[in-house]
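Quick question: what would this complex look like in 3D?
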Amino acid sequence: MNYQTISFEVKEKLAWVTINRPRKLNALNAEVINELQDVFHQIKNNESIGAVILTGSENKAFAAGADIEELTALNTQTGKEKMLKGQNLFNLIENLGKPVLAAINGFALGGGCELALACTIRLAAETAKMGQPEVNLGIIPGYGGTQRLSRLVGKGRALELILTGAIIDAREAYRIGLVNQVYPAEQLLTETEKLARQIISKAPLAVKAALEAVNQGINLPLNEGLHLEANLFALLCNTRDMKEGLAAFLGKRQPSFQGK
Ligand code: COA
């Protein structure tokens, strides 16, 4: 697929996906959603990619939300179809089997904030602004915001953001746990890459299992989550990477993981 609204490159096991509609503040129109679906599908199936950085082009926006012009045509049926399609993409990102780091370089509003919520880890520039302003438009978040935001920052804070439509700065986002770290804008991509490469250096199957344990487990009763954790641990006991990790520790050397 020849992308018109995103860019994609892979450098040494790290995929960079950039939403590239700067004149519309990287708003998520149908084309962006389709292209992200295609690229994340490719990334999921490409074993040579260990992590992804998702960001927005230029320095004003990560993504300023769903494309508001497209929303004007929606009715009950198409509105539901559009939300389910977006949710399908965001579920793919959340369950990719490899970490997706959101480098939030500016506005992450509405669908842009929801996109960041579907990512594994969120790092923000000091200049970033986040929020769920849908109530200003007579709608609610439909790409998972009501569900993922409340699971991440708690019900009270999620409802405060969703009901007021408030736009908060990066420091406040950090204070409430919406982002993991905040950096000066010019350091954001370097710091995000550093974190991604740290994760890439770990055993890939262990990273995948940890993601599955946390992502699936958070939606299960504790006893079922613990059971899932033990099962995933057990599967790792049969991997070459476990043998390599233990041998490297005991041999006082760096491990060399194969993802096997
Ligand atoms: N959908 C479609 N277009 C959008 C957009 C969106 N979500 N957000 C911004 N744009 C467009 C603007 O319409 C404008 O286009 P134009 O130059 O053709 O008129 C362009 O991007 C620049 O935005 P502008 O509003 O002029 O920038 P600003 O710096 O004055 O304000 C924001 C920035 C983010 C505060 C403002 O654009 C905004 O409130 N956007 C909508 C956010 C939102 O409600 N998102 C949730 C959608 S469900």
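Answer marked as accepted. The longest strand covers residues 6-11.
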